[in-house]
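Thread: assembly with ligand

MN 10:42: here's the input set. Chains plus the small molecule as SMILES. Want everything predicted jointly, not piecewise.
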Amino acid sequence: MGRLDDRVIIVTGGAAGIGRAFAGGFVREGAKVVLADINGEQAERSAAELRAEGGEAMALTVDVSDQAQTEMMASETIAGFGKVDGLVNNAAIAIRVKHTRAPLEEIPLDEFDRMLAVNLKGVFLCCRAVLPAMKERGYGKIVNISSGTFFNGRENLVHYVASKGGVIAFTRVLARETGDAGVRVNSIAPGLTASETEEHDIEEFAARVPNRAIKRIEMPEDLVGAGIFFMSAESDFISGQTLVVDGGVAVH
Amino acid sequence: MGKLDERVIIVTGGAQGIGRAFAMRFAAEGARVVIADVNGPASEKTAAEIGEAGGEALVAVTDVSDADSADAMARAAIEKWGRIDGLVNNAAYFQRPQVTVGPVEEITPEEWDSVMAVNVRGPFLCCRAVLPYMKERGYGKIVNISSGTFFSGRSTTQYVASKGAVIGMTRTLARETGDFGITVNSIAPGSTASDPERDQSRYEGRVPDRAIKRVERPEDLAGAGVFLMSSDSDFMTGQTMIVDGGAALN
Ligand SMILES: NC(=O)c1ccc[n+]([C@@H]2O[C@H](COP(=O)([O-])OP(=O)(O)OC[C@H]3O[C@@H](n4cnc5c(N)ncnc54)[C@H](O)[C@@H]3O)[C@@H](O)[C@H]2O)c1
Ligand SMILES: NC(=O)c1ccc[n+]([C@@H]2O[C@H](COP(=O)([O-])OP(=O)(O)OC[C@H]3O[C@@H](n4cnc5c(N)ncnc54)[C@H](O)[C@@H]3O)[C@@H](O)[C@H]2O)c1
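BT 11:07: finished. Tokens for the full assembly:
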């Protein structure tokens, strides 16, 4: 018996990294998961791994910045699993998708636009796509992944950090808008997390360790407990909140 | 199999209200619970209910504002079960007659001191009492109960100041104890119907502010308590979680 038995949960960017860890944790707790990722092949491989462990998982190739594809994501989920209980808006230009790390004047304009299109408009579009189904059933759990960088104003990443601040603002408004419909909306802000260790040496993720209360590298698994909590009935009276899970760098 | 199997958890003010809801739920998740409350008879009643439901509970009559009493609380847990995994600093003065609601000029310095003694000195003393045992084992989970009123400012100065202090203590203590495997977080409840004797319509005042428009019950806080007492929150420390149906947004 798991804490997410029979819940159907969409994890965007679920093919790899933190999203993949969420999907694994949700399946262990009994959920059926949909891995919606722009990297369809990787999403399919991850879904196959979850099925091999006895879980129910489905992969969908989705670019979250494309309205039609997010609508397809919602309709395929309902066609495959009959409903949508949860959505984790995790897909982002973050680690695997390359982006400029430089002062504001050096950020290419098209990259700024793309960052906002994926990291913020993507959240808007995915919520828009699943909300009708959640409202119809009178229940839903949405978690938007923000970032610890919003709290500490990480330099040379203004496009990314702005998008992640937008995610928190978005979370607050949507929580108020959807409470009457039984939909809860919260946010998790991870610290610097070693979500990719083939191209990036794991030691690259040690930069924030000295600032932490818990002085070690953050791993995707460290976020899973908070994800399960927000997807489960345990958090049904919590909405509009942001939980920082970073080993105690930012205190919020 | 529960989320808190084997864990020994002290809940101050665990006899009634929100503390009681934590104690009952922790026991249902497999924890062994110490009810540390000034009110002995009410503590015994809650412990008996836990026992009837198949759980394990110990009563340690405690005044959290008294250092010797807080130390005795920790020793009682150790003598009975040999370890302390969790502490919920929940005991507090929060309503009449201990807390007068009124403008600052009407709050007596004596009342200020007594509210601070229970609400701030209490968590300080209880942390002080349990930390040596937690550090020795290299693991511990502390939760301090603050209040949504810290975020809204809608209450009376002495109470809100005490609940702000709790958040400050949470942050410093998190940084101090991370190297010992201890996490320290805070839960801020909204106005909660914790007293069945009180006019229930009084709890409806804050409902319109919420995203989820209903009266908050002590049980609404239990899930957050379980999460913060469990290994699921082991990389989360120094944080404050508002559980109020979405009134204050943090
Ligand atoms: N890793 C960190 O240090 C860190 C820190 C704070 C916050 N975060 C956030 O956590 C989330 C996950 O991060 P991660 O480290 O696992 O990132 P990652 O780059 O490892 O994985 C992101 C996943 O999202 C997918 N994706 C990218 N663009 C997409 C699009 N347009 N549509 C659909 N899928 C898309 C990628 O294919 C990939 O599978 C992100 O929201 C990120 O901003 C990460
Ligand atoms: N009920 C609410 O609306 C509300 C809202 C926000 C925060 N809170 C906080 O939640 C916590 C619990 O509140 P509640 O509503 O259950 O309160 P309550 O008054 O119903 O219960 C408090 C318990 O603490 C005990 N206690 C009081 N002084 C003590 C002392 N010196 N030593 C040991 N035990 C002592 C009491 O005997 C009682 O059992 C408090 O910290 C309160 O500030 C409550």
